[in-house]
Amino acid sequence: AAAGLSYVGAYVINTYKSYDNFLQDKYALLPAVIIICVAAVMFAIGLIGCCATFRESRVGLGLFLAIILVIFIAEVSAFVLGFVYREKVKTDVQGTMRSVFEKYDGKNPESTVVDYLQERLHCCGVKNYSDWTTTQWFNSTGNNSVPQSCCQQEAKNCTGHLDQPQEL
Question: Does the keyword Nucleotide-binding apply (predicted)?
Answer without folding.
Answer: no
